[in-house]
Amino acid sequence: MVLSKKIIGILVVLSVLNGAKAQQYATKKIDRLIALSFQLSNRHQALQICAKTYQLSDAVGYYPGKAKSLNANINSYIGLGEREKALRSANKLYEIASSEGDDYYIGQALMAQALSYAYLGFFEKALKINKDAEVICRKIKDNDEFYSSLGQVYAGRAEIKHL
Q1: How far apart are CA 10 and CA 22, in angstroms?
Q2: Three-state DSSP class for residue 54
């Protein structure tokens, strides 16, 4: 099972990196590639996949793919300890989610900003942004996203306070 996941991962990475055209990708395929990036232990490969899925999503006008790609990008940068790059991706996610009025991804962006600022040593700013994220997350209408996001807000706040 683990070997087959690795083989599938390698094949997916190779197909993405071979310059496939956006028209060849359905939104479900983009979503699968993004989900795969979260499972990869090699964060650099995950970043390559996310960059490609962002480009493909942008080319076909698929906002959820762009938001998911940036969110996965943030996850990879945080995992690599690259807080400034995570912050840049979080700012970009905030910008596009705000233009779409998407409270879920606005909240995700704010939580990523808060953690990035905390790890960069800006604790008060991080706590303020985390509280802003809580306000936004309380507007989320989908129950699963609502409770998941609030859990992330509170876990993030605890992490900030313990740094």
Answers
A1: 20
A2: helix
Q: What is the pLDDT of residues 53-107, one digit of tens each?
A: 999 999 999 999 999 999 999 999 999 999 999 999 999 999 999 999 999 999 9
Distance between the two ends of the chain, CA-based, in angstroms?
38
Three-state DSSP at 51 gives helix
| pTM for this prediction | 0.84
Cβ count within 10 A of residue 134: 18
137 neighbors 146 (Cβ within 8 angstroms): yes
Rounded to whole angstroms, the Cα distance separating 130 from 150 reads 10
Q: What letter represents residue 5's amino acid?
A: K
Nearest to 113 by CA among 98, 100, 127: 127
